Each structure stands twice: as structure tokens, then as C-alpha cells.
TrEMBL record:
PROSITE patterns: HTH_LACI_2 (PS50932). It comes from Sphingobacterium gobiense. Transmembrane segments: none annotated. SMART domains: HTH_LACI (SM00354). CDD domains: HTH_LacI, PBP1_LacI_sugar_binding-like. This is LacI family transcriptional regulator.
Length: 337
């Protein structure tokens, strides 16, 4: 079945209006009366009118598309962030192009360069675990190309950033474990290069100090690729089993699932004796065995805010010189709740 491709001229002819009036009505312009807008929109819906994105982009010199780069789309947190981004983008008639870099700085840069070369209007990025060179991103921003970072952000670039309160989340996790009577708390986390790793480790240390517990470096294990490769978690678990600990705070979804998998495969490892809490946005966390007390980020809301900031920057008629760092609170969800 073929679909007829109606144009603004067709609507204008049918309603005996000028094409400029129809165009303004479809854009909800203040210059057009409410009755005329209603008439135009009702007729456009009746004929299933769809704006021609190519014609629109040529006229306005914009693609009406934004890029999103994350490490892994299947990650619970990132999939929820993307839902938030899309909810805002589509409401403002922007298309969303999503790519993943699997913790590779090379793939991250390749994705950025590809999306930029395809005239994407702006980018939303959560940095890879390998990224240490931000100069090419800074060069793009200096050219006026809008970029908003979320979750994994660069400390030194002047730009919009949307993050969770990782320090407080880590602190709350340790406070919870101490209330449960735990005194030797391990920490399984990602690469030191990432902002989220550093902030969650700070929260862990703050929690220990607040309760008079010593910080023991041998109980902190870093996985350079954040659990993307199970062998790095296996190595961390092997090293932790040589220590005595009664609880563990884990800094991410992949690490949490990988830790449980590795422990269950070890003969004699008793998971019931080790209390587990960690950052996870899994909706089935209570089905984990044993269940994990979750530190949850408002991922959908973070995606919404990041998209709003990016589109504001894209549509601004002036160069943006004042940038915001938006910090969302985390929530501790205890087992069984």
C-alpha cells in the first residue's frame, strides 16, 4: 500500500490559507489564532500529514537529530537514560541516533566524528572507561558544537553535565551495611579514570570514616572495563577470597551480576554470609540470588534533563557561556522493599 505524500501547499489549498499561515500553525506560532491552529492540526491529522525532514533541515540548516553515545545499550541504567532522552527529543521533533562504544576510546572517538560529520545537531555522551584525552571534544565545543555529558563526565571541560550524587550513594550504602552489623566492607569498582569510580570510592571512604572503620586498600578491587569482561571480575573475586570481609559495596550493574556469577562458581563460597549492596537500576533486583540492596539513580529523569539542556543549547540564538552541573539524588532500596 502506497502512502500519499501531502505537503504544506496541499493543506493550504484545501483550507484556503497561505502556506506561511499553515507552516506557522504547525509550529504552534503565537502569531496564529487558536481557531486556525486547531483547524490546521485537525486537517493535518486527518490526512496523516508528516513534515518532510529533509526539506526542513535544508531550510533551517539543521538536521533535527541528536546523537547519543553510551558504552552499552543493554545496560539497565543506560537503556533507562535513553528512554528519558527520547521522551524529550521526540516531543520537540528531534530524531535520536544511538551508538555504543563498548568501553573503547577509539570507538568513542569514531562515533563522535561520524555523528559530527553527518550534521547531527548535538551529542549526549557518557565517556568510555579508556578515555583520557578530551582535546578533540573540546575542539568541537570550541567550534560551537553542542555536547552535554551525563553520568561519566570530564572534570575540566566547561560544558553542561548531568550526574547522580555518587558520593552520597556510596556513603548511604556503607551506612546501611554498618547498620546491618558489617565491619569489614569490600568495594568492587571500575577504572580510576572515570568520574563515577572516583566519586563512589570517595563515598565508600566517607562511610567508613563516619563509622570509625579503617580504610583497607586490599579490600578495594578495580576492574578496568567495569565488568564488561567477566575475566576481570573473576580475578578480583579470586583476590578478595584471600581476604576476610563480611559485606561488599559494588559500583555498577555489570559488576554486581558478574560478582554473583563468579562467587556462585567458587566451591565453598557462601554468599549468604556476605551482604551485597551496589549501584544498579535493574528492575528485577529482588530476583537476584541473594537479592541486592540497590543504590538506584533516577536514570529516566537524568536522560530527560540531559536532552533538555542539549536542545536548549542547539536552539539558542546566542553562544552559551554559562554551564550547569545538575546533580540528581540517589535512592537506597533495601532488600525486600
Amino acid at each position: 500500500m502506497a502512502f500519499e505524500n501531502y505537503t504544506i501547499k496541499d493543506i493550504a489549498k484545501a483550507l484556503n490559507l497561505s502556506t506561511s499561515t499553515v507552516s506557522r500553525a504547525l509550529r504552534d506560532s503565537y502569531e496564529i489564532s487558536t481557531d486556525t491552529k486547531r483547524m490546521v492540526l485537525e486537517y493535518a491529522e486527518k490526512i496523516n500529514y508528516r513534515a518532510n525532514p529533509i526539506a526542513r533541515s535544508l531550510k533551517e540548516k539543521k538536521s533535527y537529530s541528536i546523537g547519543v553515545i553510551v558504552t552499552e545499550i543493554a545496560n539497565n541504567f543506560f537503556s533507562q537514560v535513553i528512554d528519558g532522552i527520547e521522551s524529550v527529543a521526540y516531543s520537540k521533533n528531534y530524531q535520536v541516533v544511538i551508538s555504543q562504544m563498548r568501553e573503547s576510546s577509539v570507538r568513542e572517538r569514531s562515533n563522535v566524528e561520524y555523528l559530527y560529520s553527518r550534521s547531527t545537531d548535538g551529542l549526549l555522551i557518557a565517556l568510555s572507561s579508556e578515555t583520557t584525552d578530551f582535546s578533540y571534544l573540546e575542539q568541537l565545543m570550541n567550534k560551537g558544537f553542542p555536547i552535554v555529558f551525563f553520568d561519566r563526565v570530564p572534570n575540566d571541560l566547561r560544558c553542561h553535565k548531568v550526574i547522580a550524587d555518587n558520593r552520597q550513594g556510596g556513603f548511604d550504602a556503607i551506612q546501611y551495611l554498618v547498620r546491618k552489623g558489617k565491619r569489614k566492607i569490600a568495594h568492587l569498582t571500575g577504572t580510576r579514570k572515570l568520574s563515577i569510580t572516583r566519586e563512589r570510592l570517595e563515598g565508600y571512604k566517607m562511610g567508613l570514616e563516619a563509622n570509625g572503620l579503617p580504610y583497607l586498600p586490599e579490600l578495594v578491587k578495580h576492574c578496568e572495563y567495569g565488568g564488561l569482561h567477566q575475566d576481570e571480575i573473576e580475578q578480583a573475586v579470586t583476590e578478595l577470597l584471600q581476604e576476610e570481609y563480611d559485606a561488599i559495596f559494588i559500583s555498577g550493574d555489570k559488576l554486581s551480576m558478574g560478582y554473583l556469577e563468579a562467587m556462585k562458581a567458587r566451591p565453598g563460597a557462601d554468599l549468604t554470609k556476605i551482604e551485597v549492596t551496589g549501584f544498579t537500576n535493574s528492575k528485577v533486583v529482588n530476583l537476584f540470588s541473594p537479592p541486592i540492596t540497590a543504590v538506584r539513580q533516577p536514570a529516566f529523569e537524568m536522560g530527560e534533563k540531559a536532552a533538555e539542556l542539549l536542545i536548549q543549547q542547539i536552539e539558542s540564538k546566542h553562544l552559551i557561556e554559562e554551564f550547569e552541573t545538575i546533580v540528581f539524588p540517589t535512592t537506597l532500596i533495601e532488600q525486600g522493599l
